[in-house]
Amino acid sequence: MVSLDKRSAPLRVLVVDDEALARSNLTVLLRRDPDIGSIAESGSGLEAVEEIRRSKPDLVFLDVQMPECDGFDVLELLGGELPPAIVFVTAHDEYALRAFEAGALDYLLKPFDDARFYRALNRVKDRLAHRLPLQSQPAQRLVIKSPGQVLFVNVADIDWIEAAGYYACLHVGSDTHVMRRTLSDLERDLGEEQFIRIHRSIIVNVERICGLELQDTGEYEVVLKSKARLRLSRRFRKRLQVRIDAL
Q1: Residue 135 has pLDDT above 50, yes or no
Q2: If you classify domain 141-246 with CATH, what class do you get?
Q3: Which terminal Cβ of the chain has fewer Cβ within 10 Å, N or C?
């Protein structure tokens, strides 16, 4: 079993599931690991959002299917306040790709055995043990590595970014650069001052937004200075409108 450096603080974990038995099963497994410190529980998505913002856990085991506010809703409501590590837990494998696009580190498919659980936990501990210190300021440029080439992209030059499976596509003028980073990781590194999420798979440079255009369907599109038109999810509409009004 992987163990954190002895100088590292015990992990603070939040277990989120609307079923008490499911929460209890995960809690029992977690308590067997000496690297786990505090374990909190949330029985709903909205409760989880409040708890994550309050206690800032290192790791969240997040159920996908919950009434009113599911696991993906939780991440969308958190925006750039995502915890360092997220493991999705669900009985349905069709959510796997979407979970990784949303920034999940692992995906536990119910019912899972102890060995599978501890593989996920060890992966989390390995990631956290090698985590770089949090930046006090948003990143100013990104490094794009490809065979035989290393490219530096100024963050201010990025128009918008979209998720593409395990990768992110950076749209910079007429160029598109692909890097192996999740959209949630980039959103956290770039900061909320300059970039804002408009869809579960899209974040946009606020300075590149020209305005919003209402479509015949009743949905809005975000129009950029580059003439690109991007779908605005209803869930993010109010946040974007407030942000634009504040400019």
Answers
A1: no
A2: mainly beta
A3: C
Which of 106, 107, 122 is CA-nearest to residue 30? 122
β-pairing verdict for 202-205 and 220-224: unpaired
Sign of CA dihedral 2, 119, 14, 53: positive
Q: Where are the domains of the chain?
A: 11-129, 141-246
> Mean of the pLDDT values across residues 156-181?
90
Distance of alpha carbon 154 from the chain centroid: 22
Among 179-188, 201-210, 226-235, whose mean pLDDT is lowest?
A: 179-188
- Quickly list DSSP for 81-129: ---SEEEEEES-GGGHHHHHHTT-SEEEESS--HHHHHHHHHHHHHHHH
DSSP one-letter code for 60: E
Same topology between domain 11-129 and domain 141-246: no
- Residue at 115: amino acid letter: A
pLDDT computed for residue 52 by the predictor: 93
C-alpha to C-alpha distance for 225 and 235, rounded to whole angstroms: 23
Tokens standing for 75? Answer: 């991440």
Class of 11-129 in CATH: alpha beta
Read off the DSSP letter of residue 231.
E
